[in-house]
């Protein structure tokens, strides 16, 4: 088996239950997964705190799914707020509170 999967749980307790079913090797967590060709392959589980996955420039903002993006390949300790700041610096401040605010 090759590849990856992202699972988003609504409740952080579900993440804890998943992690509790994992085998630990140092700071890494592994879940044993079977397929028709392989049994009990250790697959790494990399939990991410729910509090770190979203960032709102302002608390009164309404999420517009047409303006929502997924950014992959981000190092695990990166928080959404930090990613916003770095992206905004890279884009030379093109994003502001008006361009990110409420859906119309």
TrEMBL record:
Biological source species: Ascaris lumbricoides (Giant roundworm)
Gene Ontology cellular-component annotations: cytoplasm; neuron projection; nucleus; synapse
Single biological process term from Gene Ontology: negative regulation of cytoplasmic translation
One of the record's GO molecular function terms: translation factor activity, RNA binding
Domain RRM: 2-47
Protein name per Swiss-Prot or TrEMBL: RRM domain-containing protein
Domain of life of the source: Eukaryota
InterPro entries reported in the protein's UniProt record: CPEB (IPR034819), Nucleotide-bd_a/b_plait_sf (IPR012677), RRM_dom (IPR000504)
One Pfam family in the UniProt entry: RRM_7
């Amino acid at each position: 088996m090759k590849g990856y999967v992202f699972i988003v749980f609504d409740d952080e307790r579900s993440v804890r239950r998943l992690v509790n079913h994992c085998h630990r090797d140092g700071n890494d967590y592994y879940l044993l997964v079977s397929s028709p060709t392989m049994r009990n392959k250790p697959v790494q589980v990399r939990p991410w705190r729910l509090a770190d996955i979203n960032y709102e420039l302002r608390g009164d903002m309404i999420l517009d799914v047409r303006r929502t993006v997924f950014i992959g390949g981000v190092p695990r300790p990166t928080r959404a707020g930090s990613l916003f700041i770095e992206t905004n610096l890279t884009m030379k401040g093109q994003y502001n509170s008006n361009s990110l605010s409420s859906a119309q």
